Amino acid sequence: MIDFDTLSERMTQRTVLCIGDLMLDEFVYGEVSRVSPEAPAPVIAAQRSELNVGGAGNVARNIAALGATCIFVGLIGQDAAGETLKSDLTQDALIEANLIVDPSRPTTRKVRFVSEHYATHMLRADWEVALAAAPDVESKLIAAAIKALPRADIVLLSDYAKGVLTQRVIREIIDAAHQANKRVIVDPKHLNFAVYHGASILTPNRKEFTEATRSRARTPQEIGLAAREAIEIAGCEAMLITQSENGMTLVARNGDVLHVPAYPAKVRDVSGAGDTVAATLALALASGASDEEAVRAASAAAAVAVGKRGTASVTRAELRKKIVPQASLTMEEKVVSGWKELDARLDDWRRAGLRIGFTNGCFDILHPGHVRVLTQARATCDRLVVGLNSDSSVRRLKGETRPVQAELARAEVLAALEAVDLVVIFEEDTPLNLIRQIKPSVLVKGGDYTREQVVGHEFVAANGGEVVLIDILPGHSTTSLVNRARQNGG
């Protein structure tokens, strides 16, 4: 389990080797108010245009935006578009661009005409030759990738079927990565997944997946069944099927299925969202995240990307804001005072498909042991609710001289922690009724408890949740701190 700040810091220390189809994305924005007198076609009054690094280059930009180093291997033509891409990529200090020049083909270029008022794509014009790279060009691509491999923590193949990732290039890079014990993430385009045999994780979108598997799978269970044969054919560890507003479904080789709903987002433009997913997934995995943590991070990054216009990249700060939005709330907003308010918050989170965690305690004097448990508890879920014993409850449990701090003071201190999304004060000696109300997906306590000693463990398990015990820091206890303070005061 990794909290976001730890994961974010590790990202800055990682290097991703990305190989794929580079392209120049141009967006022409304008207003449409009339139809051409020459033909039944709308006329766009162009107002501005933007040039962006697209295709696999956008994967590289996303990796760099998240603070990591990207060694990029791609192909350009001997033309103005190629020079533009080369210039743009080399301006980013975190991108090491190894661009092979092929004078026999143009640099792939896509021009999209977008209505400013309706924020919709009206037309796209493509300049490209989608043919496999010539044998001598293949050799140069392979040589550049294999030379960079020892410096990479993970390998990412971004396939747009424009000719860079030929069967020979794919095979030699995956085999070399295996020998170097490096995982390979593939954003595929071939409908025959066997081409990517031996890759770690494939990330097809729903359309690619349904066409490749010839299935109409829609639910996570149906996708899980359809993916099993595809995983066997591809010889991969897992497959992540991205489904736009319907979220993402990760199917493991052993048949386990994890579905992560999409984060709420105002969609402006879906261009390049798949690049963002692949980049974030690969970088999170390279940084030590579990498959589930990496998928959740990728889902959050996608929600940020689709909220931007054009081919967008996502920064660590933007990703953090999406994953830990409660951090922007005031302390008072995090403390709920009644069941009705609690239910309203929980309903919002459940509609968004978020994983809700719960832990509890008196938290009379907050110390490093508490902070460790709370931080690691937040790493197990999307939102963490903390149950706080009321003053009367603490007196019954700890004696008439406790608590040292009143319940509202204790609640505000907890709410000031970024790991905490909600604080609920309860009057009972145990949080069992609160746990039944919340129905958490994960119940967390310190490792000084056994699973059987954790109040509510049977209820949570019966509802499909899990109990997680966090190792506590030795030498930290509120009671010992209070006793020490009183002795020193005496």
UniProtKB/TrEMBL annotation:
Domain called Carbohydrate kinase PfkB: residue spans: 15-313
HAMAP family assigned to the protein according to its UniProt record, in alphabetical order: HldE
Record function comment: Catalyzes the ADP transfer from ATP to D-glycero-beta-D-manno-heptose 1-phosphate, yielding ADP-D-glycero-beta-D-manno-heptose.
Name of protein: Bifunctional protein HldE
EC class name: transferase
Keyword entries, A-Z: ATP-binding, Carbohydrate metabolism, Kinase, Multifunctional enzyme, Nucleotide-binding, Nucleotidyltransferase, Transferase
Region annotation (Cytidylyltransferase) ranges: 358-490
Pathway(s) of this molecule: Bacterial outer membrane biogenesis; LPS core biosynthesis; Nucleotide-sugar biosynthesis; ADP-L-glycero-beta-D-manno-heptose biosynthesis; ADP-L-glycero-beta-D-manno-heptose from D-glycero-beta-D-manno-heptose 7-phosphate: step 3/4; Nucleotide-sugar biosynthesis; ADP-L-glycero-beta-D-manno-heptose biosynthesis; ADP-L-glycero-beta-D-manno-heptose from D-glycero-beta-D-manno-heptose 7-phosphate: step 1/4
SUPFAM superfamilies: Nucleotidylyl transferase (SSF52374), Ribokinase-like (SSF53613)
CDD domains noted in UniProt: RfaE_like
Subunit record text: Homodimer.
Active-site positions on this chain: D275
NCBIfam families named among the record's database cross-references: cyt_tran_rel (TIGR00125), rfaE_dom_I (TIGR02198), rfaE_dom_II (TIGR02199)
GO cellular component annotations of the record: cytosol
Gene Ontology biological-process annotations: ADP-L-glycero-beta-D-manno-heptose biosynthetic process; lipopolysaccharide core region biosynthetic process
UniProt region (Ribokinase), positions on chain: 1-329
Enzyme nomenclature, EC number: 2.7.1.167, 2.7.7.70
Catalytic activity: D-glycero-beta-D-manno-heptose 7-phosphate + ATP = D-glycero-beta-D-manno-heptose 1,7-bisphosphate + ADP + H(+); D-glycero-beta-D-manno-heptose 1-phosphate + ATP + H(+) = ADP-D-glycero-beta-D-manno-heptose + diphosphate
Span of domain Cytidyltransferase-like: 358-451
